[in-house]
């Protein structure tokens, strides 16, 4: 729960605002199978919340130096297009919480491990990009999550001290990144559960984005003219 209104809110994208992690898991498993590799849902877990360059290292280490990561990603992109086109569904409550933060006049941004082209396409397609003051991606920093670079860059772009901001994350590596940057963080679990480590790093664990929105409204009164469900 929140006791103070944050000076800025920094949203993760995949798994937090967009219900994309399940799509990534399904299509990567399909791409790996097409290349002759067996991949389970459990095998996908260490890749969640990690930038593409780190995923490359992990999968090459697992499958050997001859594993063609770029081919796998190309197949995965084709499968995504065939099955989903440009659709990347919003998580429940995503649009409302973004609109609420905007209505409260709180600066807001995105800090995502995705590349710029994907972030702009998905946020734009789902109508969230106009509500964001800044969008920081893996292309904008030297190191991705769980290092703190993305959150430090987002706070700087929003012209706020990291400790005055609030991060919203769904993944363990995202929580670690925000905490390492000194940004208070609330976890809204998606594919990964809240562990004891996560509870020690977070302000709170929320059941969903609607719960976080309620906390923000209570902490940032007055609440007239806010969007309603």
Main features:
single chain; 229 residues; Rossmann fold
CATH topology of the largest domain: Rossmann fold
Structural class: alpha/beta
CATH class of the largest domain: Alpha Beta
Task: Record the strand order, biggest sheet.
Answer: 3-2-1-4-5-6
- CATH architecture of the largest domain, by name, is 3-Layer(aba) Sandwich
Corresponding CATH superfamily of the largest domain:
HAD superfamily/HAD-like
Question: What's the mean pLDDT score?
Answer: 93
C-alpha-based Rg, rounded: 17 Å
Low-confidence stretches: 223-229
Strand content: 5-15%
What this model shows, in words?
By secondary structure, the protein is α/β, with parallel strands linked by helices. It folds into two domains: 8-19 and 89-219, HAD superfamily/HAD-like (Rossmann fold, 3-Layer(aba) Sandwich); 21-84. Helix content is 45%, strand content 9%. The chain has helices spanning 21-34, 41-44, 52-63, 69-84, 94-103, 116-125, 149-157, 172-181, 196-201, 209-219, and strands at 8-11, 108-111, 134-136, 165-169, 185-187, 204-205. It has a six-stranded parallel sheet, sandwiched between helices. Helix 6 links the parallel strand 2 and strand 3. The longest helix has 16 residues, at 69-84. The model is unreliable at 223-229 (pLDDT under 50).
